[in-house]
Amino acid sequence: MLHNDIKIVEEPRYKTKPDWLRVKLPMGEEYKKVREIVSTHKLHTICESGSCPNMGECWGAGTATYMILGNICTRSCGFCNVATGRPLPVDLKEPERVAESVRLMNVKHCVITSVNRDDLKDGGSIIWVETINAIRRVSPETKFETLIPDFMGSWENLQRIIDAHPDIVSHNTETVRRLTKQVRVQAKYDRSLEVLQRLKEAGMKTKSGIMLGLGETEQEIYETMDDLRAVGCDVLTMGQYLQPSPKHLPVVEFIHPEVFAKYKVIGLEKGFRYVESGPMVRSSYHAEKHIF
Q: pLDDT per residue over 247-268, tens digit each?
C-alpha cells in the first residue's frame, strides 16, 4: 500500500532535443514535385519510412533514397522506424517503376536501399540486380549507391550485388560491437564486417554508417573505426540517433556538433577517404560526394 505523501514520478519518454537538432519542415516546389513522382509511381523511400530529418533538404534538391522490396521488414531493430512484420510478395514491376522515376526526376546520383527480406531464399538480391540494371537502361549517366542488408551471410546473394557492380556499396554497422545485440537484434557485428570485407576484396568501393547517442563510449567509437578500416572500408558516416517512438530504444545522450567534428578529424586520420559526421547526418546524406 502506498502512503499519501509518496508521489510516483514517471520518466519522460523523450529527452528534450537541443537547439542544434531543430529540423526545418519539408517545403518548396522541388520537394512537392518529388513527392508527387514518388506517390504516382507507388514507390517507397527510406526518407519517409525511416522518418529521416533531412527529407526536406534532400527532396528540396530533387533527390531521394529509394527503398525497394516493399516497406515491411522481417527484422525488428530497436532503432528503426520501418514497419516489422510479414512482407507482401515481391513486386516484379518495381524495378521499372524505380527506374522511370529516376528518369523523370533527372537524378544524377541516387541511393537504393531495401528492407530485410529474410523470408526470401535470395534475400531479395535478384530484385536488387534488376533494379540496378533497369536504372542503367533508362538513365545510363546516373551514378548510384546501393545500401544493402547483410543477406544473412549468404555470400551467393551478396555476389549478385558484386556482379552488378554499383558505383559504391554501403552496409551499415549501425553501432559499436557491445550494443549490436540490443540495437540490431537479428544482426551480427562480425557478419557486417565480413560483408564489407568481401565487397572490398571484390574491388568495390565501400561505405558504412554508425549512430551515436545509444550509450557507446568514445573508445568504442574508435574501435569501431579501426574495425571498419581493417576491412578496407572507404567512407564513414556518423550521425545522432533520434528515437522514432516510445517503443524504440531511448536516446542516452545527445552528442554536441563539436564532438562530431572531432570524430571526423580522427576518422580521416585513421585512413577513411571521406567522413560525414554531424548530428543530422544519415547514411545517404550528401551521398553524391562519396563517389571517388
A: 999 999 999 999 999 999 999 9
Q: What are phi and psi of 248, to 5 degrees?
A: -90, 170
| Residue 272 near residue 232 (C-beta atoms within 8 A) | no
Q: Which residues pair with 209 in a beta bridge?
A: 237
Tell the burial category of 258 from Cβ atoms under 10 Å away from its Cβ (0-12, 13-18, 19+). exposed
Could you give the CA distance from residue 112 to residue 84 in angstroms, rounded to a whole number? 20
- From the list 152, 148, 246, the residue with the least C-alpha distance to 199 is 148
Q: Which grid cell sits at 164?
A: 552488378
Please tell me the total number of residues recorded for the chain in this structure. 292
Q: What is the pLDDT of residues 175-206, one digit of tens each?
A: 999 999 999 989 999 999 999 999 999 999 99
Instruction: Check if the beta carbon of residue 125 is closer than 8 Å to that of residue 162.
Output: no
Cell of 121: 531464399
Residue 152 has pLDDT above 60, yes or no: yes
C-alpha cell at 201: 576484396
Check pLDDT > 60 for residue 29. Answer: yes
Q: Write the single-letter amino acid at 248.
A: H
CA-closest candidate to residue 164, choices 112, 121, 116 = 112
Residues 115, 187: Cα–Cα separation, whole Å: 13
Alpha helical stretches, state H, the chain: 29-40, 46-49, 55-60, 94-105, 125-138, 155-164, 180-183, 189-201, 218-230, 257-269
The 3-class SS string of 209-239 reads EEEECCCCCHHHHHHHHHHHHHCCCCEEEEE
Q: Is 81 exposed, middle or buried (0-12, 13-18, 19+ CB in 10 A)?
A: middle
The per-residue pLDDT of the chain, averaged, comes to 86
